[in-house]
Design a protein that fits this description.
Largest sheet: 8 strands, antiparallel, barrel
Radius of gyration: 21 Å
Number of domains: 3
Number of helices: 5
CATH superfamily of the largest domain: Mog1/PsbP, alpha/beta/alpha sandwich
């Protein structure tokens, strides 16, 4: 089955007539599989088909493009580890091949079987590299009957040429703009019961969505009835709301009060979603729980945090210089990054390719942490406490760039 899928993908082109273009995400335009369920979260859109009676499924997940950091093979190896091998516990090396499209991009294709709990099948990753950007498309399936749909999808795929220098310049400008110029709200103060930033732990598990179980998720409610169904990559310091509404329309919805003390999220073309607050102040959206994030303006931290599940694991200290998933903050506003943007946050989309570790000063405001390195470069990422915990009082777990970091005891 793995070889059959590879042969199918290798024979596919990456261009087709404009008449087949039906939806766009990031730089990708493609034909939507008919009848498949769409699922979106920050940085990825997925299309899902399941047949519970037969016990079969297929998912196609398109990840937002990233600035290329190496060769096509290096990009594939890195993405295979993060998107497939690690979350699906794949130990076997993937069967791979390399092709080129007619615009000069390099495409590395790889596939391997997996068994992850009750879920099994074949994981197929297409890493497409060209014009300074890397796009990843991950397909998971346990039935060869989906081959024709996969073929139709790849035949209808086109990738926009985006000059990296232009894209990076726009994103960098967004990072450093004054909040007074970009319609960026201050830390949210709840006025209508649900305004603000809410965080949850994704608990839904079914055939088509195996990679998100247990992941942190966010929703942001504005007082004007808008919902941003995530938290921005860089938080709200310098967030350009109008630009996001145009470029990330799939993340924007509206909510209304239903007149019975609760709310409804209204998405175009989708059934309304109930939003409730329980007696403990937790938000419930379609059985998924969220908690209200505390404001973080002016927060000072003191200690070391890592994305490793066991923060005191001594192996963390053995990592190569600049390649440790570890950051140190001090109460005097200083920090030392030992490599979080080369490891835990290597796919963080801030519009720059600078990922060097180093030291400097930090600022936390508007659900953002702003790191100003002593060599002059700047990195910014979303920042919240864990769920409804106030990080000024309980900083054992914090969230940077939507990744949980745990505090070390030393």
């Amino acid at each position: 089955m793995i070889k059959k899928y590879l042969l199918i993908l290798i024979g596919l082109g990456l261009t087709i007539s404009a008449f087949a273009q039906t939806e766009t995400f990031d730089i990708a335009t493609y034909t939507i599989p008919q009848g498949w369920e769409k699922s979106t979260r920050e940085g990825v859109v997925s299309y899902i088909a399941t047949d519970n009676a037969k016990g079969i499924y297929c998912t196609i997940s398109i990840y937002a493009s990233q600035a290329s950091k190496g060769t096509a093979r290096e990009e594939f190896d890195r993405n295979w580890s993060v998107l497939a091998a690690t979350p699906l516990h794949i130990k076997d090396l993937p069967q791979t091949d390399k092709v080129s499209d007619d615009e000069g991009r390099e495409v590395i294709l790889g596939a391997a079987g997996f068994v992850n709990g009750n879920l099994s099948g074949t994981a197929m990753l297409s890493t497409i590299v060209g014009f300074g950007l890397t796009t990843n498309i991950l397909t998971l399936s346990n039935d060869a009957g989906y081959q024709s749909t996969i073929e139709t999808f790849f035949n209808g795929l086109t990738l926009k040429k985006v000059p990296p220098a232009v894209a990076h310049a726009v994103a960098a400008t967004t990072v450093i703009q004054s909040t007074s110029k970009v319609n960026s709200p201050p830390c949210f103060n709840t006025k209508n019961g649900i305004e603000g930033v809410w965080m949850g732990i994704y608990m839904k598990a079914f055939y088509g969505d195996p990679l998100t179980l247990g992941h942190t998720i966010w929703k942001t409610f504005y007082s004007n009835g808008q919902v941003y169904e995530a938290i921005p990559d860089m938080g709200f310091a310098g967030f350009n709301k109008p630009e996001s509404e145009s470029a990330e329309a799939q993340f924007w919805s509206r909510y209304i009060n239903n007149g019975a003390g609760n709310w409804i999220i209204k998405r175009p073309g989708v059934i309304d979603i109930d939003v409730k607050l329980n007696e403990r102040g937790n938000m419930i959206i379609s059985s998924q729980y969220y908690q209200h994030c505390k404001p973080v303006d002016g927060l000072r931290l003191n200690g070391s945090w890592t994305s490793w599940e066991e923060p005191d694991n001594p192996d963390l200290d053995k990592g190569a210089l600049g390649q440790k998933a570890l950051i140190r903050f001090s109460a005097n506003g200083q920090f030392t990054d030992e490599g979080i943007f080369n490891t835990a946050l290597q796919y963080h989309r801030d519009g720059t390719s600078v990922t060097t570790a180093g030291s400097g000063t930090y600022e936390i405001r508007n659900y953002s942490v702003i790191l100003r390195y002593s060599d002059g470069h700047l990195k910014q990422a979303a920042f919240t406490g864990f769920l409804s915990l106030d990080p000024a009082l309980d900083d054992k777990t914090i969230c940077i760039g939507r990744v949980t970091f745990k505090k070390r005891s030393r």
